Amino acid sequence: MVERTRKYTKYIQTLFILLYYICSCCCGDVKPKHELYLPNYQYYHNLQRIGQHIEEIVSRNPTYLRLDTQYVSRQGRSQYVVRMTNFSDSHTFTGSYVLSQYKPKILLSFGEHAREFFPVESVIHLLQNITGGLTAVKGSPEETFSRTVLSKLDLFIVSLVNPDGRHYVEETGNYCWRGTSTGVDLNRNFDWHFGGRGSSGNARDEEYRGVNAFSEPESNVLTELTAKYKFDAFVSLHSGIRQIYVPFADSVSKEEKRLPENLDTQLQLAKLMSKVTGNLFTYGIAHELNDYAADGTIFDFMAGVRQIPFSFAIELWGEGDHKGAKCFDLFNPESQVLQKALEEVHPIYQTLFSFIIDWKEGQIKDYFNKIDEPPTSLSVLYFMLAFVVMVTVLMALHRKLPSFLRFYNRRRIVSLRSLSSTFSVMKIT
What we know:
- This protein is of the alpha/beta class and 429 residues long.
- Helices cover 44% and strands 10% of the residues.
- It has an 8-stranded mixed sheet, with helices on both faces.
- The chain is globular and about 110 Å long.
- The N and C termini lie far apart (151 Å).
- 37% of the residues are buried.
């Protein structure tokens, strides 16, 4: 009996070990691979040059750009939060949620995943284009775009959400590394169905969610900004495939087929962003586009918890996972074609900004039209009050009107005394 028990125990132990290795092999590990090509830093920016370049752009344009240095990573590196608007032309309106500001507020998030260099290059390209347009020929497309953005938008840009992860990639040469310094995937670390099957509790997995929601200090910048300001749009920028995702991506939403409230409007914008690139991008609801679920994502949190009207996750470049792909080539173009790839995706920003500006102006117009139109009950009250006033005035003037204009002719009133006198005269006679 004892021998049989030992045999069963040994079988169970062997089974658990086997399952452990199967799970380890199946999970998306973050071990380095032999890359097809590497970044040439004459074209790409390394971590140091990213900071220097952003600081230079901000210092040259103090009227329109401000750099917030209070937000840092676990290891104390700046996340380079840039606010871009015409600060001398700020219109504030206190009222409904969507009208918290005349200028629409948009929050852009770059560099959440360490191995995705392309989105970070994209934000530098965007900053250069907007500020460069200020000195372009007056009336040119570049000048018009820059003036429109700076006068009609309030942009918040988190240029590098995960600087520690980027530092790790550059120091180790492991271009498969996705997470923070502790290996946490920030895009599984937010409190929207955190811990679901669309994430991992295995610290060796690339989708490791962390010990609890918001465990990473790097998440603070996004949670604090969205708690402080009422944003009209949020966009989380990635690379790996050309797709535009609308909420929701989590496993519960996938099962329940949950949809965001303003789905049609978001899909309309997603369609326009795809069209402007020559339809290079597919778009749609995240849990329908992907076979897998993703729990704890940032853009789901912004849509479901923060209730931001427009929330997207956009993957700017790539062909998706395919045979022969390694890591750097899966998420980033070769250095020689980097500039061309950046120019191809730039119209996405132009379309996004233009659409949100028009949408917000429509919201404001509708709001004030409703204010100008009194409620139905109030209109009835006004009518009744006007009627009473009119009748009162007519009654007051009635006796002064000619007889033919009166509602009724004035009647002669005979007193009883005069009647008695009349009867007495008749009797004497």
